[in-house]
């Protein structure tokens, strides 16, 4: 892969994370093998949120990180999933990333049959559901423009860490611009193939995204893997009308919207099978919110 702009690359080993600075047009692979000695390269000592995010990465899953010019981190060795429908394609456009935060409250109101709270209450309520407090590490999977990640960063404070991960570069660029924070880092990646080590997070959320993810159940298993025992999960996603997927019009709705509609028990059953307890499900219109604790 050839890089056309000056970038900083960090290389992960079992024990360390080295920062490298390849030249313009330098091949990333060459840069990564050129300088694995931290004493030779410009090693940062400032423990930024991005630096602390690197410590959570699993070298077996993620070969390194590139800091994109827009300010988020790109994972090396993890492919961004191909889009499989119009909904996903929309998420990858700069236009939609730019207007998304304005339209979300209205979209949620409609999907929840007018039961969704306003934006500020929504964020505060989600942080409460995650039982977030200062110093904790929280992962916001499929974070979009960071509209919840930024709030998490405020709640966990400078000693904590809020990482937003998303597959859409325009969304991540918006996240960096609109929802930054001392405790906040953004990372490109795939929810189905998380780059983190096992049991690194105190809390994980995945909001308004599972219905777009190609393999949503695999993504939930990944979230369970990276969550510490006792950690909290919050999932907000779609619900088939009446909670039933076995009706012909559900397939038509899915085809037209390119959005997956979940049956009432599909996600709660999976969480139970993964050993979660305190599973609570709140349904509203075509939306469901599930909170649970990893045992
Ligand atoms: C509707 S936005 C949700 C943003 C935010 N979580 C919220 O609640 O408003 C859905 C996001 O899911 C992301 N997404 C879809 N599939 C993904 C995947 N496999 N891995 C990571 N992100 C994904 C999209 O790029 C998009 O930003």
The amount of helix comes to 25-40%
Say how many strands there are: 11
Radius of gyration: 19 Å
The CATH topology assignment of the largest domain is Rossmann fold
Query: What is the distance, rounded to the nearest whole angstrom, between the alpha carbons of the first and last residues?
Result: 42 Å
Q: Mind summarizing the main beta sheet? A: 11 strands, mixed
- Please mark out the parts with pLDDT under 50 across 5 or more consecutive residues, or reply none: 1-40
Number of helical segments? 10
Task: Describe this protein with a few key phrases.
globular, alpha/beta, 32% helix, 295 residues, single chain, binds S-adenosylmethionine, 11-stranded mixed sheet, 10 helices, Rossmann fold, disordered N terminus, 11 strands
Give a description of the structure.
Helix content is 32%, strand content 23%. The chain has ten helices and eleven strands. Strands 2-1-3-4-7-6-5-8-9-11-10 form an eleven-stranded mixed β-sheet, sandwiched between helices. α4 packs across α7. The longest helix has 18 residues. The site of S-adenosylmethionine has 21 residues, from α3.
Secondary-structure topology with pairs:
Blueprint: E1 8-12, E2 17-20, H1 28-34, H2 49-54, E3 64-67, E4 73-76, H3 86-91, H4 94-111, H5 119-129, E5 137-141, H6 149-156, E6 161-166, H7 169-178, E7 184-188, E8 201-207, H8 216-226, E9 227-238, H9 248-257, H10 266-273, E10 276-284, E11 287-294
Parallel strand pairs: 4-7, 5-6, 5-8, 6-7, 8-9
Antiparallel strand pairs: 1-2, 1-3, 3-4, 9-11, 10-11
Helix pairs in contact: 4-7
Bound molecules: S-adenosylmethionine.
